[in-house]
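#struct-pred

JT: dropping the chains for the assembly here, can someone run the whole complex?
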Amino acid sequence: MSLLFLILIDNSVSFRTTEICFMSVFVTVGTTSFDELTELVTSEPILKILETKSYSSLLVQYGRGHHQVKECNTAGLKINGYRYKDSISGDITNADLVISHAGAGTCLEVLGARKPLVVVVNEKLMDNHQFELAKQLHQDGHLLYCTCSTLGSTLSEMDLQSLEPLPAPKTNKFGEDLTLHFQL
Amino acid sequence: MSCIFRYFPPMKMAFLLIIGLLVLFVIRLCYVLFHLQEKPLKALKSRSVLAVAGSGGHTTEIVRLLSSLPSTFRPHSYVVATSDKMSVTKIESFESTEGSENKFTLYKIPRSREVSQSWGSTIITTFHACLASFPIMWKSRPDILLCNGPGTCIPLCIVALIYKVLGICATDIVFVESMCRVTTMSLSGKILYPFANRFYVQWPQLLQQYPNAIYLGGRLV
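RK: done, full complex below.
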């Protein structure tokens, strides 16, 4: 998020400062193909919702999808897109909101970066076990969870302040347990 | 059948020998499986770990699990599917943060099953992967085989069990079910549940189906 302070001098020589926030949305589908989401998120209705929520830029990582998101300005948002990067952690860090597929690794990476996350389930992959984690994290209040058909209402009604941060994993317990078992 | 044995006694002997060896193998297998959950008898100064990498988040999880182990769990070696370049990058990046004095080994193996591959052809590719596992396990002979669910781990675990029954090495299988498995077990988990020495789950819901699994109170990665 970048803050721009404008110092305005009016006729009575008083100073006013105005804070302008440029909030950005990052959409990621990992290594999957999820054209339904990338097309939806760059469509007018969704862009309008994002604009009313004060987002001014949208970056889409579209993975294996056929729908390529090109650089443009639409409905008051600066839009750009790419297929893959070696690491999306920089784009996650720069985002104020992340919208992603239900990939377990992505969920953990975004929640680990303490960013608000909306997970969109790809209904064409209903037997994909990766839903389990996103569903559980949603039940535990760590992220928002929806389908393409409910993304609009989820974004309109979202209260990102109500999301709980994800607690750190107990990785050290694994090391301790194994050390105890193997008597090292 | 009896006339063959009358005229070819050596065949009868060979047949009896094969049956005898199979019976011995089964008895030894039962002994190994019966003693799976016990602590190792030998106290060693260190235990080598062979970790199985996999696509998606599997390698990320494996690397995080390894990072929690003290340096007595060394040396590290890894098995990576031949088509998996991303895992090699993750492993090299992890090992470079662990210190340049720690050497590690990378073994390549054909994939047992691609996503959505037919089950008929999976039998053939798994068999091919099993054949490739024999020399890997022979060279490596790790104390611990660490896996978290990619299909790549099945042939290695099968070979580890065969070698254990034959007394070639005493590799313990440590299986950690992926953290994205909340209510259902992976296929690899279902297969290895009866054969693993330590079987960990990261969500308590799985204990209902797998009561002998170990749950340490939360996610491990």
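JT: nice. Residues 23-162 of chain A form a domain with the Rossmann fold fold (CATH 3.40.50.2000). The longest helix of chain A spans residues 171-181.
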